[in-house]
Amino acid sequence: MAAGDRTVLQFNSPSSAILSAKVHPLVIFNICDCYVRRPDQAERVIGTLLGSVLPDGTVDIRNSYAVPHTESAEQVALDIEYHHNMLVSHQKVNPKEVIVGWYSTGLGVTGGSALIQDFYSREVPNPIHLTVDTGFRNGEGTVKAFVSVNLSLGDRQLAAQFQEIPLDLCMVEAERVGFDILKKTAVDKLPNDLEGMEVTMGRLLALIDDVYKYVDDVVEGRVPADNNIGRFIAETVASLPKLSPPAFDKLMNDSLQDQLLLLYLSSIARTQLGLAEKLNTAAQIL
């Protein structure tokens, strides 16, 4: 065979390369909720990811919904009509969110993932495959993102290889507290408002101690000064309102009393609802 007639085995990269992805906590919570509510015979949950592709190629995953499916060792069947109906209903509320990929629960890519990836490749170019380990096999809920690269022999496509891409969890501090609790294998109880405030204040004091130690080290000449850190500290200090210690104590006490009042009112409302339900049940019996 001549050198020019040789058939080359090669990977075909996507036309528009996806560099990374970022996922919002709502997606993780929604996937875990769907996994808990799955049918008894289902081993995992599969669904559609919604979001947008940013100009730098990053996929922003902002929402999701589960898609009913059945699977066996040889095949996977998705309810395509349900998938399209959910997409139409969702885009009536969020028209800017489009399909960016799909998700499945489990530690990683499975044998049937290529079939589902092929379906979503017809829905959107270069779909993301997000996996969420709801079984906590590594001690926590591992979240990974993949893209597929086609393996071809000449003009013939042989298979699809999944390659992991960087994934960033976008969340504020309040969301991170909930996510940290969610990814643990066991939790004694969920923190209430006062306990959450105590944890937050503890972290704030630890950060203040770190800043104080850094400033002291710079003044004493133990570490070189960094102008960027100095400007950041100056902007932070300048943004704080000037309050005297008595005024600050009063502000904190007022806020604490407001939270205690809310807890008291919610407790009274819960008690009244319980009494009303029991009276209604007794009236129906009589």
Keywords:
two-stranded antiparallel sheet; 286 residues; nine-stranded mixed beta sheet; single chain; alpha/beta; 45% helix; Cytidine Deaminase, domain 2; 3 domains; 11 strands; flat; 23% strand; disordered N terminus; 7 helices
Task: Give an overview of the whole structure.
Keywords: Cytoplasm, Initiation factor, Protein biosynthesis. InterPro entries: eIF3f, EIF3F/CSN6-like_C, JAMM/MPN+_dom, MPN. Its main location: cytoplasm. There is one protein chain. The chain is an alpha/beta fold and 286 residues long. The protein folds into 3 domains: 9-182, Cytidine Deaminase, domain 2; 191-240, no CATH class; 244-286. It is built from 7 helices and 11 strands. Strands 1, 2, 3, 4, 7, 8, 9, 10 and 11 form a 9-stranded mixed β-sheet that branches. A two-stranded antiparallel sheet has the order 5-6. A hairpin with a 4-residue loop joins β5 and β6. The longest helix is centred in the last third of the chain and has 41 residues, at 245-285. It starts with 8 loop residues before the first strand and ends with a helix.
Brief summary:
The chain is of the alpha/beta class. It has seven helices and eleven strands.
Number of domains: 3
**Percent in strands:** 15-25%
| Biggest pleated-sheet summary | 9 strands, mixed
- The oligomerization state is single chain
Annotation, overall tally of beta strands: 11
- Supply the CATH superfamily name of the largest domain: Cytidine Deaminase, domain 2
The Cα radius of gyration reads: 27 Å
Bulk shape: flat
Q: Mean pLDDT, as a whole number?
A: 80
CATH class of the largest domain: Alpha Beta
Low-confidence stretches: 1-5, 7-11
Counting helices, strands and paired strands, the structural category is alpha/beta
